[in-house]
Write a structure and sequence with these properties.
0% of the residues lie in helices and 53% in strands. With 212 residues, the chain is mostly beta strands. The strands form four sheets. Strands 1, 4, 5, 6, 7 and 8 form a six-stranded antiparallel β-sheet that branches. The chain has a four-stranded antiparallel β-sheet with strand order 9-10-11-12, with no helix packed on it. Strand 10 and strand 11 form a beta hairpin. The N and C termini lie close together (12 Å). 26% of the residues are buried.
């Protein structure tokens, strides 16, 4: 049984103003958003993938710029520890960066992390991450890659046959903004839900058998 649950990073803590409405008049709902974490001044954070384990610890994989006020995307991990006063988030650590050359040498972002046991070059890995990579500074030609890790906190190794989902036209946005999930108990299928420009697509990629 998978012990991890996916959570939305910005959690709606309460909807205030709700009351018993006997006269059928419109109700006023006021969402309260709790600030969670940030890279600090000059840094941006977006596209979170949040995993919570059986101890309540949350692992937030997000896009963040490494250098203040410079727009270059990296993937960072923020770890949240539950306390009586709420979550205490440790400083973010960089876990994936753009390659020096190739299909993802400008930006990498939109991480999506899942627990998934697989074998790669004779070794067993327990976690997979799909991510968006791009090799053009005009942000066209986006493609999707895969990274794997033995531990949820990394290190993550990029698959040597990336991009996992390629796109040929360098004049268009490409593919990205994906989400993947597992299907089945013994026989697993990894399914990628992704976007081609503004059109949603569905792309099934891998199938394997679970041991045990």
């Amino acid at each position: 049984m998978n012990r991890y649950k996916t959570y939305i990073c910005l959690t709606l803590l309460a909807l205030s103003g709700c009351k018993n409405n006997d006269d059928n008049s419109p109700q006023t709902l006021t969402p309260q958003i709790r600030y969670e974490f940030s890279g600090g001044a000059g840094h941006y954070n977006y596209a979170p993938s949040i995993i919570q384990d059986e101890y309540g610890i949350r692992y937030g994989f997000i896009c963040e710029n490494r250098d203040p006020f410079k727009i270059v995307d990296y993937v960072y991990l923020y770890k949240g520890i539950p306390t009586e006063k709420g979550y205490v988030w440790q400083p973010g650590t960089q876990i994936i960066e753009p390659s020096e050359s190739g299909w993802d040498n400008c930006h990498i972002c939109d991480p999506d992390v899942r627990e998934f046991k697989t074998t790669y070059k004779g070794e067993t890995y327990n976690w997979i991450m799909t991510y968006l990579g791009v090799d053009r500074w005009d942000c066209n030609h986006n493609q999707i890659g895969l990274a794997i890790s033995k531990n949820i906190e990394g290190p993550y190794i990029k698959f040597d046959k990336n991009p996992l989902v390629a796109y040929q036209d360098t004049t268009k946005w490409g593919v990205g903004q994906k989400h993947h999930h597992r299907q089945g108990l013994r026989h697993h299928t990894v399914v990628l839900s992704l976007h081609h420009g503004e059109r949603p697509l569905l792309h099934a990629r891998d199938k394997t058998e679970r041991s045990g």
